[in-house]
Please model this.
Amino acid sequence: MTASEVFRLRRRPGSRSLLLAFVLLAVIGAVAAFVSYLLWPTWSAPRIALDAPALPVTIGGVLFNVPPAAIRVPVQRHPGAHERIDLVFVWPSLTPPVSGQEVAVPAAVKVENDSVPVADTDDRLFVTIAGLGSVLAPIERLRSIYPRYFEARATAGPDDLAVLPFRAGTPYEGEDLIYFAEKPEQFFARCTRPLRTMSGTCVHERLLGTAGMTLRFPRQWLSDWRSVAAGFDRLIGELHAAGG
Model:
């Protein structure tokens, strides 16, 4: 018998013991996993009715009262802290859509590196509330960021508005900055231009403490932008009333 054969013979008993130990551990682990699966609680949080009272939610540390029927994403329908919340309201009543009447949302608008679906419809206002984080406040972007990308001088828009196109090849290609000519800080929005069968969509942003509110609406609403701005003020007051 060679030395290698003796070595193999001497290892066999230990190898068998080690194999049995592994098999035993595997069986114990499988049984433990099965028992844990059977005993793990399977209940889920109760669903919030769409007609329930407004939910108190905090976003970026800011308190809002949000009607459940206005919340577009079902998983967001709960009180407490949120990273963001997505809402929809019927214009001009600013009420949540009737249950089952929500509009499909095939299109998208880019908002500071965030692609958000919005519907191409003329009676819906889409609202997103999220923590501001490291994003510049809207007024700071108006003063220091947008001017870098303008294409030419402003042209006159409806009812004392001014329209400034953004250059091609910039982050805002295909958009216009539309603002109140006498006082841009009072009202301004970024709007996509109408394309074939798609109407333009505008983005108006507000800052509420450490939370940012983005409102998306059809560009044609700007023909009566003063009423639109007043409606936004009213909606923000309703959502943020408890927060001061």
